[in-house]
Amino acid sequence: MAFFPDGNTLVTGNFSGAAALWDLTDLHQVRDHAVRRACATTRGGLTRDEWDRFIPGLTYQDTGSTGEVR
């Protein structure tokens, strides 16, 4: 297993000699913009109850209908 210098590509191999390339670009986008992606996915943010269920341990943030944390 090794990362390409761009940080977006991972190559893995096995003992039979097979190799696979993994494009991690989307994963980096999710990680780097997690709040924006979550709000866009929920179409307007989470209610307080949804926040407590899906994001326990973090203080509730009102995302409103714009999908942006206020």
Describe this structure in words.
- This protein has 70 residues and is an alpha+beta fold.
- It has a domain at 2-32.
- Helix content is 33%, strand content 17%.
- The chain has a 3-stranded antiparallel sheet.
- The mean pLDDT is 81.
List descriptors.
single chain; 70 residues; alpha+beta; 3-stranded antiparallel β-sheet; 3 strands
Radius of gyration: 18 Å
Structural class: alpha+beta
Number of strands: 3
**Uncertain segments:** none
Summed up, what is this model?
With 70 residues, this protein is of the alpha+beta class. It contains 3 helices and 3 strands, in the order βββααα.
Topology:
Blueprint: E1 2-3, E2 9-13, E3 19-23, H1 25-32, H2 34-41, H3 48-54
Antiparallel strand pairs: 1-2, 2-3
